[in-house]
Amino acid sequence: MSLARSPCRPPGLTRAVLFAVVLVGLLCYYRSSGPPNAVFFQQARPLTTSSHPIDELIAGAESSFREVLKKESHDLETAAAQYRERRGRHPPPGFDVWFKFAQEKNAVMVEDFFDQIYHDLGPFWGLPPGVIRREADNFDMTIKVRNQTATAGSDWFWTKIWLNMTSTIEHMLPDMDLPLNAMDEPRIVAPWEEVNRLMDIERAARKITPTEEVVTHFQTLPEHPDVDVQSRNRNFTQTRPFWQVAIRGCPPDSLARKAAQLELHGQTPAISLTHTTPHTYKGYISNFTLSGDFCHQPDLQALHGMMISPLSVSESQVFSPMFGGSKLPTNNEILLPAPMYWNEEERFTGGGATGSPWTEKLNKVIWRGVATGGTNTADNWRGFQRHRFVAMANGTKVSNAESWTEVPENWAMPTTQYNLAAQEEGQLGEWTKEWADAGFVDLMCKPIEANATCSYTGSHFEIQKGLPMAKQFDFKYLPDIDGNSFSGRYRGFLMSTSLPIKATIFREWHDSRLMPWIHFVPMDNRFMDFYGIMEYFLGYTGKDKNVPAHDEQAQKIASAGQEWANKVLRKDDMQIYVLRLLLEYARLSDDQREKLGFVDDLLR
Ligand SMILES: *[C@@H]1O[C@H](CO)[C@@H](O)[C@H](O)[C@H]1NC(C)=O
Ligand SMILES: *[C@@H]1O[C@H](CO)[C@@H](O)[C@H](O)[C@H]1NC(C)=O
Ligand SMILES: *[C@@H]1O[C@H](CO)[C@@H](O)[C@H](O)[C@H]1NC(C)=O
Ligand SMILES: *[C@@H]1O[C@H](CO)[C@@H](O)[C@H](O)[C@H]1NC(C)=O
Ligand SMILES: *[C@@H]1O[C@H](CO)[C@@H](O)[C@H](O)[C@H]1NC(C)=O
Ligand SMILES: *[C@@H]1O[C@H](CO)[C@@H](O)[C@H](O)[C@H]1NC(C)=O
């Protein structure tokens, strides 16, 4: 999410305030628990070297989050006023019904939490409503809403789940058609230039219509609207590598658009922090939204299965409506909560278990999963994110690299920027062995081999027994790494008493309501910050070097994340989000869209 003001390069004043906060915090700490002040001041090192960058990131995030929460609205008038201020338009008709629905479900009502909707829908103001209606209907997998009843023409299981979700709110919905992406992979990437043109139209059309001109009722639609409108040929194609498709949505002067295509032929990918500066502060994520944006990170083309070799590709450059459960930052899908979140399947939720209390958990990291990410082969697996992560969390590999007995196949040692005590003592591998337990349960070989084994990765990874999610909650730390697309475990992780550590290039419906360093720990897609994150939380006791642990901070984020997820990621919240989304979408598909609005609050 983009709530946190980046502490990366704060204006001088902000930084001074941050340090002051840390200073006061330290003073209080030593007053209550430590040596007399005089001694403290004698022994204290300059504050700038004693405060960890993660402390600063947490403090910055906490203060931004407090600001966001101040915006909570408790009545319809305030919510409508905030809407007009943030969106520059009247709310859509039905806003009062939506607000009442949300309030009855005790939702936390902050307009910012719906930002993703406006990001996804904005460019549709540039398409004529008739074209939206025609192309939405003219698709093989759709949900249709007519006369407040939702139906689907397909019984594909994702469609059924989304239909179930839509049906629960159908009595509040106007007529519309929802074309659905039923693939794992996102499909629409219109060129940046085209989206920019559409957004220019959106900005020009944005206005608060005089109250007396406002139309308050949606159109009704025939079964197949606008059959006389020409539906454009979306020309879905299988373009590979997907990187070439994905960067179409990047600005023309971006590093991604200008970079040469990298070819992976069995070599170790280049892993460096060169392109991380815009989204990190002293090596740690300061802008999580930006960290998933590859337009300034051309090296990610060789570091993610989605870019290297997705399982399937069927993509279009035509900007047209399609709903989906996740997407890349440059995709144009309209996000819905992913089916597994609504369906609450056991493998994605832990079956309702949330884990033991923090103090009873193992002070360790657990990761188990399948070697997905796309189609891995002997030539390309070294770039795949899960392979890279599992290798880096393998203490034996790290020790072997430290002693030069095994060259890292698909990862790189952390740079000195992280000042890792264990690494400085030559003990990074030994230390990692103490707390890391990551492994594949299936190597997903191509071609498939018996018993989940693989001729080309089998010597690098040992197949492990699976561990049900509920059992993983016995561990404090849960890294969450993208698979073929986004990782469906994330909601389950957040709702547990353990602490998710998240790296991703995918966007999801909930992104505007989750705050890095408050509700989860963000990690860079190269994972080089992984050891530093763990050193901060676990601490390190070595021969000469000692680094204090920050277990309290970990527990605090884990429990804040759980509490927050139970407030804003409930199925109720998905309904509230989807209702708001579909009211907006219906307005965009309406010939009177410029005049449609909710203004009852202004007429009183
Ligand atoms: C993150 O980066 C984006 C793109 O530069 C920017 O719009 C946004 O404000 C940043 N967010 C934070 C929290 O700094
Ligand atoms: C809409 O549904 C209601 C009851 O659910 C029904 O009475 C009415 O005839 C329907 N209208 C149309 C146009 O189908
Ligand atoms: C959605 O699915 C659940 C679980 O199968 C079922 O109980 C519920 O009735 C369904 N709701 C609708 C509106 O179809
Ligand atoms: C469809 O896409 C392919 C590959 O991008 C392109 O060569 C072809 O001209 C396109 N066809 C149409 C009708 O746009
Ligand atoms: C696969 O595992 C089964 C049971 O452990 C074993 O009997 C079989 O020989 C294995 N197959 C191969 C090809 O290794
Ligand atoms: C860890 O790395 C060693 C050395 O490369 C390898 O033999 C072992 O199978 C790896 N373990 C796992 C769980 O992948």
Automatic annotation (TrEMBL):
Key words, A-Z:
Membrane, Transferase, Transmembrane, Transmembrane helix
Source taxon at top rank: Eukaryota
Give the transmembrane region(s): 12-32
Question: A GO molecular function for this record?
Answer: transferase activity
Q: What residue stretches are annotated with the Glycosyl transferase CAP10 domain?
A: 296-595
Q: Membrane as a keyword? A: yes
Output this protein's name: Glycosyltransferase family 90 protein
